[in-house]
Structure formats: C-alpha cells, structure tokens
C-alpha cells in the first residue's frame, strides 16, 4: 500500500513538473500576433467570415503579414505578404512546412491520406509526385497531348457552339459558359487519363464520353458532402452523431467513385493486353501519345507491382481529375467574364490571333508562343482570381520560425495568395483588370503564386496553362462574345476552397464572319 502511495505521489510530481516545463516553453515562444479574443474549443473559428481570403486579409491589415490563430484545437499561421511567402517557400523552411493537415473527411476521400495532394511529405508522396510530374504531366507529355487529346476535345466544342449558334435566332446562341468550360476541362482530363472516347467509340460530337459523364455526376455528389463534412472536421460531436446521414452518403458516393475508377483501370489493362497480343509485348511503346495516363501507370506496375498498385493508380487518377478540373475551368470562366466586361481587351486579343494565326486554320500549340497578349490576359486573370485563393493548407512537421516568429510543429500554414496578388505596394491599381501590366516583361520580378510555390507547388501548371491558352485562344478566334443584356457581368465570388464565380457565367456567342469557311472543315 505504501509503495503504491509513493508511486502515485511521484507520478503526480512528474506530471506537474512536465506541465510547468511545457508552460515555460510556451511562454518563451514568440508566436506571431493575432486576435486576443478566442472562444473555448472553437478558438478563432467564429471570427472568420466568408470568403475566407478577404476575412484573413482584414486580419492581416490589423495584425501584420504573419497572423497567429487557433482553429479548433490547432495552431494556424496565416501568411499575407509576398515577402514572407517568398521566405516561407524556400530552403529548409519549405521542407518544414511541406506536410498537409489531416482531417477526418479527407481521410475518407483519400485512401487514408495516400493520394498526392494530401499525403504528408515523405516516401509515398515523393513517388506519387515523381510519377505525376515525370510520367504524366511533364512538358513533353503535355506537348504530345496538345495535338491529339486536347485538340480533339476543343474541335468538338467549336462544332457544338457553331451548331447552337446556327440554330439560335439572329445566329447568336445563349451559352452557359460555366457548364461548357467545366465539361470541357473534365473531358480533356478524362481523355488524358483513360481515352474513354476511343475505347468506347462514342460519338465525337457528344459533350463527353459516357464514362466522363458518369464520373462527373459522382464527383458532383461528393463535393457538397465534403463541404458539409468540413463542419465535422472541427466539431467531432457532429461526426459521431452523423447528423443528416452525411457520413453514410459520403461513404456510399466514395465507394461508387472507387469502383468506377477500378473499372476504368481494368478496361485499360484489357486494352493494353490486346495491344500486346497483337504487336508483341516488347513492341508496345507505353510512353507515346496514344497511351493514356492509366496505361503509363500500368506499365510501371509491371516492374514494381508493390508500389504501383491499383489503389495507387486509383488514388492518383481521382486526385488529378479532382485537382485539375475545377481549377482550370473556373480560371477560364473568370477570364471570359473579365473579357466580356472589357470588350476592348477582347478585340485586341482577337486582332493578335488574326494577325499571327490567320483565318484559314484552327489555332494550335505552336501558335501560343506568338500570342503574348493572350498570355497576359491569362496571367492577369490568375492574379485577380487565383482558383485556390488560399492555396492548399500546409502543415509544419517540426518547430520552425517564419519571419522571426515561432511556429510550433503541427501548425496549419495558410497562404493568402489572393491578398498577395492584390497588394497595392506591389501592383498599381491592383483591383483593375489590366493585362498590359504584364506586357514587354513589365511585371518581371513581381511575385505571384497562383500555382503555389516550392515542393508542394502545382504539378499540373504546364497542362493547365496549355489547356487555357488553347481553349481561350480558340474561343476568341472563332466566335464573338457579348454580354446578355447591358449590365456588366457580376464578378462576386462565392465562398469555398475554390474561388468560384457566384453567378454561373452565361454569354451570347456568334461565329465570326471571316471564320465560316474554316468552321465548315472542323
Ligand atoms: C488553373 C489551373 C490550376 C491552378 C490555379 C492550380 C493551383 C494549384 C495550387 C495553388 C496548388 C497548391 C499548392 C500548394 O499547396 O502550395 C495546387 C496543387 C496541386 N495541383 Fe493544381 N492547379 C491547377 C491545375 C491543375 C491541374 C490541371 C492538375 C492536374 C491534372 C493539378 C494537380 C494538382 C495536384 C496533384 C496538386 C497537389 C500537389 C502536392 O500536394 O504535391 N492542378 N494546384
């Protein structure tokens, strides 16, 4: 009994000393400044308004370029200036903040955090990143894809728009640009992943292959559920009670997504086997333009089956489709909205295309380097409306220092790209759409980060820039676009991780008179 008594006292004293040590360490820490008022359990969460990027920009205006918050039980550090962002994404600090925060809803959607965009910095992430950047999204593969997969989808879109215009009164069709651009981006990525149009010999005039449409519908179910699940990420009670059956619905939709992608992998495997039987195994080139991304990964599976499992392939396919579709289509939607509100800019871009490409053929990838003004329009759109205004959240794996402040291990790092791109100290008239600010290298040295920076920066930048250049270029080359009615397009942003336009964009589209002969041939 006496022994038990001494052991209990010793444990108590030890715990007390440990507590004192931790408190002392905490006092010694120099955390970044932040709001004093914090709520029990929720911390500063109730102070954050939507959209998050403007609410956090307001906090930065009060507390400075590095702000400390408590979000639920986590430390969070918000970076709001180009200078601090540059420092954060370089050298050792870039490594120290290269993890991703883990949330229960993300775990459900990501095979236990084993997909590229949410995996922690480590061996698995490195393998996925290498496969994505070297084998799937490299400049070489993007070049190969531009002439076939991407060009084919763009031609189909031009044909559909021309038909819709021909059938419309006055030859000008009312077009839901948001939906069209989303479907085009999704379809391009689906074709890159699995070439479903070829496999299932769909009518090339259909908006999307049967598979692309089905997967799009599953994604459309999952995304709002993840939005609702954000709440239970911070309030576990809601998760345990499974309010409104969100958990059940999410699990069901994710299972269907996984089954669907596994079926796509099987179909691609079957296609490759047939090809190998026909041509002899050694004679099938897995890196040519005809091989889909799934095909490339299946060839890697042959040499390293333990690494490139079907689950690995499934995770990467779902991740790239999810990460690439909304971002690319939303950026193009913003670009078209800006052009509709600035007809002189649209005209200047059309004149550039007419004089460099001519009127006898469809613009292609080789024309893009000769269309600098189009490039300026895309850059200016990315500056004003970065699709991921807060990037993706990072997490520090060790204690580190940002801008002289202590950042404890496990802190969430949020970077306000939206605020950085609109900093009046760097950009003249930052709220205005002025593509000319990028002309003749005028913006050289000015810091922008629409694709993030450092190790976790976007691996799809090449593909996104190529797709956006080709799609916007062709839309301007073939059609005149006008607003519906006299009012300016409303540029209000919706709340969310992706910066959507609150009102889906619609416009009137009419084939340009001098392009009719080329239109017949497409
Ligand atoms: C305009 C289009 C796009 C924009 C603005 C964009 C932007 C971004 C940003 C800001 C990040 C986060 C960077 C960070 O956390 O520091 C990111 C990550 C990522 N993006 Fe993109 N992206 C675009 C298109 C694409 C495309 C087409 C793909 C692939 C098909 C893609 C795949 C990814 C992946 C896999 C990640 C996670 C990388 C990692 O965690 O290592 N993105 N993107």
TrEMBL record:
GO-annotated molecular function: heme binding; iron ion binding; monooxygenase activity; oxidoreductase activity, acting on paired donors, with incorporation or reduction of molecular oxygen
Pfam families, per the entry: p450
Keyword Zinc-finger included in the entry's annotation: no
Metal-binding listed as a keyword: yes
Keyword terms, alphabetized: Heme, Iron, Membrane, Metal-binding, Monooxygenase, Oxidoreductase, Transmembrane, Transmembrane helix
Residues annotated as transmembrane: 6-23
Binding site for heme: 458
Required co-factors: heme
Family membership: Belongs to the cytochrome P450 family.
Protein's UniProt name: Cytochrome P450
Source organism: Paspalum notatum var. saurae
Lineage of producing organism: Eukaryota, Viridiplantae, Streptophyta, Embryophyta, Tracheophyta
